[in-house]
Amino acid sequence: MESTGKLSFTNNYNYVPASFWYHFSAASGVELDAFKNPEIIEGNILGTKKLVETTSPDFVKLMSDGLFHYEFNYQDADDKRVVYANLSPIADNHPWLIKTADLVRRQKQVIGERASFYNVFSPTTLLKWALVKNPDGHYDKSKADEKLADIILTDSENVRQALEVITLDVIKQVKAAVNAGADGIYYSTQVIQDTRLGHADFDEFVAATDKQVLKAANQLSDTNILHILW
């Protein structure tokens, strides 16, 4: 766990708090779109309620099914040379942020007084998913790391600039979730699984933005959870 060092929810227990969670849809999470299919949110709420009633966890991971990703905001909609170029931060009242807050409020209503941590994905993960979105709306996730490594090796400056913007947007998502009642975030990040990249690339294109998001999260919340996929 990442923590500011202040009093955290773990101090309320004389044992290690435990929880269980899973995604509430059989479909690949990144392909779920709550804007096109509002029933995904309803399934999320019902799934959260059933999970709490069945397992009675000490804390709850608030799943973001249907809101895994967002549409990038382009400075000029006609200038899309590549999916990650020409980005500007989203507005504070962006629909993705509003729907995130609404989801958290509804999830809090069904989990009682349990501590809760909203599921947030890293800027690097959001970028690599965007690289493999097909016109039909499906994502070829098996190629995501390869595509990301390709552009890091050939277009590093634009990748760096894109990640800076996406990081600002993720921080806004964190604020939306915490302000809506989440006790913190469950932050999911991952190494770039491509042998052409090394530790320096990880530090620059993954860890640097992770640290920015976690710093912002720790300023908003006493306790946040870091989930690293290798």
Assign an overall shape.
Answer: globular
Q: What is the CA-CA span between the terminal residues?
A: 17 Å
| Biggest β-sheet: strands ordered side by side in the sheet | 1-5-4-3-2
Number of helices: 6
Helix- and strand-based class?
A: alpha/beta
Topology as a string of helices (H) and strands (E): EHEHEHHHEHE
> What proportion of the residues form beta strands (DSSP E)?
5-15%
Low-confidence residue ranges: 1-7
Which percent range fits the helix content?
A: 40-55%
User: Rg to the nearest angstrom?
Assistant: 18 Å
Write down how many β-strands occur, each being a DSSP E stretch of 2 or more residues: 5
Q: How confident overall, as mean pLDDT? A: 92
Tell me about the largest β-sheet: 5 strands, mixed
How would you portray this structure in words?
There is one protein chain. The protein contains six helices and five strands, in the order βαβαβαααβαβ. By secondary structure, it is of the alpha/beta class. A five-stranded mixed beta sheet has the order 1-5-4-3-2. Strand 2, helix 2 and strand 3 form a beta-alpha-beta unit. Helix 1 packs parallel to helix 2. The longest helix has 24 residues. The two termini are 17 Å apart.
